[in-house]
């Protein structure tokens, strides 16, 4: 997913970024009018994960309430080094990734990847990194996943590992979820493998 930097009415900065575009990791889009920028943001389906708006502080009042404050990066006071501005933009992008990983919906639970916690109804369950990876892997599949596939894709083991290792991990994870949330149906199993639906 390409990260996008929307620049509002700062043509000099837009020109600099376009001149160095092979050295930056994000796409640059310039706008002269706030209404055009706001319209673009409304139509950008990926705005929550990959877009930042660079504005001059003088435009802060005119954009207030139209764009999420967490998505705004303000142009530093002059004079400034372009590397400083790039650093500020990259920090904003990192913050967005961190925020986007705060809560992922899995069934009727919230999975916080940063804290490695599964939450439901004010109850929290601490998980291991491998348990998180298994849940996400199963969540993203439309069909049951075999033990062998879990072994290879999540545990990164070859065929020489006993399948009981993966089955034991899944058993423990299911037991933790049942004990904490009284839920026997979070991870289901059938002949073809495990799944979350």
What features would you describe in this structure?
The structure is a single chain. This protein is α/β, with parallel strands linked by helices and 197 residues long. The chain folds into 2 domains: 3-100, Rossmann fold, CATH 3.40.50.2300; 104-195, Winged helix-like DNA-binding domain superfamily/Winged helix DNA-binding domain (Arc Repressor Mutant, subunit A, Orthogonal Bundle), CATH 1.10.10. Helices cover 42% and strands 21% of the residues. It is built from 8 helices and 10 strands. It has helices at residues 11-19, 34-43, 47-50, 60-63, 82-100, 129-139, 147-153, 163-181; strands spanning 3-8, 26-31, 51-55, 72-74, 104-106, 109-112, 117-120, 123-126, 188-190, 193-195. The strands form 3 sheets. A 4-stranded parallel β-sheet has the order 2-1-3-4. It has a 4-stranded antiparallel β-sheet with strand order 5-6-7-8, covered by helices on one side. α7 (147-153) packs across α8. The radius of gyration is 22 Å and the shape is elongated. The chain starts with a strand and ends with a strand. The model has no long low-confidence stretch (mean pLDDT 88).
């Amino acid at each position: 997913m390409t990260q996008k930097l929307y620049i509002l009415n700062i043509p000099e900065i837009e020109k600099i970024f376009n001149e160095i575009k092979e050295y930056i990791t994000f796409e640059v889009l310039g706008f002269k009018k706030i209404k055009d920028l706001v319209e673009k943001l409304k139509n950008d389906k990926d705005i929550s994960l990959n877009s930042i708006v660079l504005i001059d502080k003088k435009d802060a009042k005119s954009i207030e309430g139209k764009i999420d404050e967490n998505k705004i990066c303000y142009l530093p006071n002059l004079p400034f080094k372009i590397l400083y501005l790039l650093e500020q933009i990259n920090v904003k992008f990192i913050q967005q990734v961190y925020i986007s990983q705060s809560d992922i919906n899995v069934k009727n639970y919230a999975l916080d990847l940063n804290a490695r916690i599964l939450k439901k109804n004010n109850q929290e369950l601490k998980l291991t990194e491998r348990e998180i990876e298994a849940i996400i892997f199963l969540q993203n599949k439309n069909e049951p996943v075999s033990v062998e596939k879990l072994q290879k894709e999540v545990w990164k083991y070859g065929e020489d590992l006993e399948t009981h290792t993966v089955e034991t991990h899944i058993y423990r994870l299911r037991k933790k979820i049942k004990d904490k949330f009284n839920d026997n149906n979070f991870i289901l199993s059938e002949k073809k493998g495990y799944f979350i639906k």
